[in-house]
Amino acid sequence: MRVVAVRQANLRQSAAASAEIRAIWREVAALPRGSVSTYGGIAARAGLPRRARLTGHALKVAPKSLALPWHRVVAAGGRIAFPRGSAAHREQCRRLRAEGVEVIRGRVRLPKAQDLDALLWGSAR
DNA sequence: GTTGTGACATTAT
DNA sequence: CATAATGCCACAA
After folding, report:
1. Which domain holds residue A66?
2. Which of A4, A77, A78, A87 could in theory staple to A110 by disulfide, Cβ–Cβ 3.0 to 4.6 A?
């Protein structure tokens, strides 16, 4: 029985896991230009509630060839997930601003209406 | 198989 | 604003 459990875990690691990862990639790729969403929000929309961390992981392992708009994904409250001053942090700010998103002290303005709307209903206005 | 870490979130101090 | 406690879970050591 332990053996079975372990085997299941191993299986999940290789094949199945990427299905969830792919679901997340899909959601991220669907983010409209100039909008932002959160890790938890993306996970939820991908059908993976409470798996914000997985979103982070998915982005980390995402192949560059996908050219995902990772910069449109921020932490809860609009915070940039990277430490202030880090290269990644600056890069994300830069990209966001280039899309017209206001970034203030490592925090993006999540227009309330748009915020909750986007999180609960997707960007579909 | 256990442990520590992490592009997280939420709630409570 | 900062910390801590929980929850969640993939991954590497």
Report:
1. 19-121
2. A78
Number of domains in chain A: 1
CATH number of domain containing A88: 1.10.10.10
- Evaluate whether residue A105 is within a structural domain: yes
Distance, Å, A81 CA → C10 C1': 18
For A39, the token pair is 């890790």
Mean pLDDT of chain A: 81
C-alpha separations of A67 from A22, A62, A63, A112, A124 in Å: 14, 9, 8, 28, 22
Distance in angstroms: CA A112, C1' C9: 30
pTM of the model: 0.82
pLDDT band at A8 (very low <50, low <70, confident <90, very high): very low
